[in-house]
Amino acid sequence: MLYAEEQAHNKARLIIWALSNTHWQTISATNQLNMCSFVSGHYSAAQYVEQYKFVMSPPYFVKFHTFDNQQDLVNFDIEHSCQIYYFDQTTSALNIEQIVSHAKQRGLLTIGNGEKFLTKQGDISLISKGQTLQLKVNDSENSQQFKIKALYSMPIKF
């Protein structure tokens, strides 16, 4: 249990770091981006990301919304619009291709877990290998809405 909690904290740090290195074109009139997280279980990085008071993905502040039901996330997106999606370890393995595909069509940022998430056309993936956590960017994906700065491999040991 301690291992899972520590890993979730480390993933949260990497997500914040990735968001701060993603620069957006003008897409929001409200000066904020909505990050919508689809999570399952007690130890999700999304729950720790929400503890950060002020997170920027330049030039916008990021507001966090967490969902444990895929339909609730879709409904929120229809009503309020998500610009960033995060899928935790469990939900990254679910049938999320439709959400990711819809996000890609709109030029939005998707963050998930595992090598497989990158093959589903996700933008950024957190990959655990043994006691190391790495952040990988899908180089084949380009968006007119945002630009991910060159992220150098930053493995975290835990």
TrEMBL record:
Q: Which organism is it from?
A: Catenovulum agarivorans DS-2
| InterPro entries linked | YfiR/HmsC-like (IPR025293)
- Descriptive protein name: Uncharacterized protein
Lineage: superkingdom: Bacteria
Pfam families attached here?
A: DUF4154
